[in-house]
Amino acid sequence: MTTSVKMPQLGESITEGTISKWLKQPGDQVKKYEGLVEIITDKVNAEVPAPLTGVLKEIKAKEGATVTVGTEIAVIEESIAATPSPPPTESAPAPQAATPVAASPTSDEGATEGRTRLSPAVRALIEEHRITDAELSRIEGSGIGGRISKKDVEDYVAKRAQPAAANGEQRQRIATAPAPTPGTTIPLSPMRRTIAANMLKSKQTIPHAWTVAEVDMTSVVRFRQKVKDSFKQREGIDLTFVPIIVKAVVEGLKAVPVLNASWSEDGVVLHKDINVGVAVSVDDGLIVPVIHQADSLSIAGLAKATDDLAKQARAGKLGISDVQGATFTVNNPGTFGTILSYSIIAPPQAGILAMDAIVKRPVVVDGDAIAVRSMMNLCLSFDHRVLDGVSAARFLQGVRGWLEGFSEQVPLY
């Protein structure tokens, strides 16, 4: 009996995925829950397990192909005598962010994991070619978390069999090589291609509007400067400005709930939970993990949540639940020194807030006095179908007022 393997839906807003790497080839034995294929979306890189034990009969979607959810990607012939293995006691392997950093771990921990999580097919190939542990350590895994794939081993064996080119031959190749053409084309990664498609869709379907507020962050800066060392010693993480901004956003969304919403043809959907997505930069773009029920967390709780999600994103260890369900997004281009940024809304959300760099400059205070203050620009992009400029400005002024009124009386925990 044959079973069709279809492209799974790896998130509520994900409609397609790109085949990154087949971990099994036609004719290979597969076990239930064993990794079958790696799939990339704009949010995560997921290792999809085999749904049953058997033999992989046919691959329907080649590596690099982008297919829609529900499309047949492979066929497995079930082994009649096979007894399905019980589900693993630990959770299934977490989908991971498609980032080149995760694919080439630099830490000993990442390298060890990539070499211990070897599939049976890879182990058999290593034994067949008598690859030593020393040689294995030199093989760079291209799979999730630095995992060594069958193709990685085959490539190593092929290179090992080829003698190094003589210097004269190398010089001859260089001399006869065609002249390079002007410019360089950088191939689009699946992640970059998907981000491009989503951003184009956002601009084509959402009537963007934006507004900016200038915020005096002097009180916040003084507070952070006073408590950051003790916080680091107590919690083991840095207290950045991001969790404080997220807290201000949460208070702003409580006051103007129409911004914590989504557009639908049947009407504006107001969300009960406040789930804040926080953009995290990775090598090939942005990952936006989500702080669920952010309104239930203190500043310290938000700090721990943002730090944990950022580390998971950059290590390629985010799960599907970590990147879905956001009702509003906070972007932090200011970490790169920008002073005024306009962000594109992530559908189906109604808004995104960009926080720019905090810059000291002279401003007028108390009527006619001039003082040096720590100033920051906040730019709100919003869906003009969902709300008008008045509501957007009210939200932004609420965030500004909360930050400018910050004092040591605001609880950290």
Secondary structure: elements and pairs:
Blueprint: E1 2-6, E2 16-22, E3 29-30, E4 35-40, E5 45-49, E6 54-59, E7 66-68, E8 72-78, H1 100-103, H2 108-116, H3 120-128, H4 133-136, H5 150-161, H6 167-176, H7 190-205, E9 208-216, H8 218-235, H9 242-255, E10 261-264, E11 267-270, E12 276-278, E13 280-282, E14 285-287, E15 290-291, H10 299-315, E16 328-331, E17 351-355, E18 359-365, E19 369-383, H11 389-404
Helix pairs in contact: 9-10, 9-11
Q: How would you briefly describe this protein structure?
A:
With 413 residues, this protein is α+β, with helices and mostly antiparallel strands. It has helices at residues 100-103, 108-116, 120-128, 133-136, 150-161, 167-176, 190-205, 218-235, 242-255, 299-315, 389-404; strands at 2-6, 16-22, 29-30, 35-40, 45-49, 54-59, 66-68, 72-78, 208-216, 261-264, 267-270, 276-278, 280-282, 285-287, 290-291, 328-331, 351-355, 359-365, 369-383.
Describe the structure.
The protein is an alpha+beta fold. The protein has three domains: 1-95, OB fold (Dihydrolipoamide Acetyltransferase, E2P) (Beta Barrel), CATH 2.40.50.100; 99-164, no CATH class; 190-404, 2-Layer Sandwich (Chloramphenicol Acetyltransferase), CATH 3.30.559.10. It has helices at 100-103, 108-116, 120-128, 133-136, 150-161, 167-176, 190-205, 218-235, 242-255, 299-315, 389-404; strands at 2-6, 16-22, 29-30, 35-40, 45-49, 54-59, 66-68, 72-78, 208-216, 261-264, 267-270, 276-278, 280-282, 285-287, 290-291, 328-331, 351-355, 359-365, 369-383. Strands 9, 12, 15, 16, 17, 18 and 19 form a seven-stranded mixed beta sheet that branches. A hairpin with a 3-residue loop joins strand 18 (359-365) and strand 19. Helix 9 (242-255) crosses helix 10 and helix 9 (242-255) crosses helix 11 (389-404). The termini are far apart.
